[in-house]
Structures are given as C-alpha cells and as structure tokens.
Design brief:
mainly beta; Metal Binding Protein, Guanine Nucleotide Exchange Factor, Chain A; eight-stranded mixed β-sheet; 11 strands; globular
Length: 139
C-alpha cells in the first residue's frame, strides 16, 4: 500500500492491509475532531519525507506524527512495539477496505453512530489485550 499526506511531502508504504478500525478515545477525537479511522500495521512502514514530519510524544508509551507542512495526521505508534496505526485518509487508492473494529467504544460520544457491523471493544477490553502482550497503556 502506498499513501501520502495532503501536500505529498510525506509518503508512506506498507504491506497490503484490507481492514481498518475506528478509535473513539478522547485523544484521537481531539487530534482529528472525530474518531481516528486507521489502518493497523504490525510492521514499521517505509516513510519518506521525514524532514516534513513532527513527532509528538502523546503519552509515556506512544507517539503521534503529522506533516508540519500541511497538517495531515500520519500515525500513532506504540513505543514498545513495531505497531503503527496509520491514518486511513493517507491511502485513497485502496477502495476494497473492510471496516473491522471500533475501540474505546465506551468513550464514543452519543452524537454520532456508525451503521457498520464491527467488533467493538471498550477501553478495558482493549487494555486487557495490551496486558496479554506486556504493554501497559494509560488513558
């Protein structure tokens, strides 16, 4: 898969992934004014144009990146792993994606609702999955 930010200064390439998720946590909603629609990759993507990126340490265990030229949100990265959660909007050329899951569903505000049938995980259910992998996230 190949994608890029709005201005094209940052390009990202990663393995083909055909599913995406939505995160309803308060940080993601503040970061992008709505749920983060994202592709979940377990491998570090190939990123070009890093000189146009700003990386923000959003918690003790994760960072977020954006293009400082055009403002496009690029990814969320768990520091203790190779996991990258990449903004779905970067990958406009992939029309055959399946909306697979929603996380932090218990943090979703009442003013929107997706009609898709997805796997829905609460904050605790997600953190329990992290604990199984030895990751200790905080809200």
């Amino acid at each position: 898969m190949k994608g890029h930010c709005l201005c094209g200064n940052v390009t990202i390439e990663l393995e083909d992934i055909n599913t995406f998720e939505a995160c309803h946590c308060t940080m993601c909603r503040r970061w992008g004014s709505g749920p983060l629609m994202a592709i979940h990759s377990h491998l570090k993507p190939d990123i070009k144009g890093e000189e146009s990126m700003t990386i923000y340490p959003s918690s003790a265990w994760a960072e977020r990146a954006f293009c400082h030229k055009c403002g496009t949100n690029l990814y969320y990265h768990q520091l203790s792993s190779e996991t990258y959660v990449l903004s779905l909007g970067l990958f406009q050329e992939n029309p055959n994606l399946t909306f697979e899951s929603q996380i932090f569903i218990d943090r979703k505000p009442d003013y929107y609702e997706f009609a898709n049938d997805t796997v829905n995980l609460t904050q605790q259910q997600l953190f329990d999955k992290f604990a199984e992998k030895g990751i200790r996230p905080k809200d």
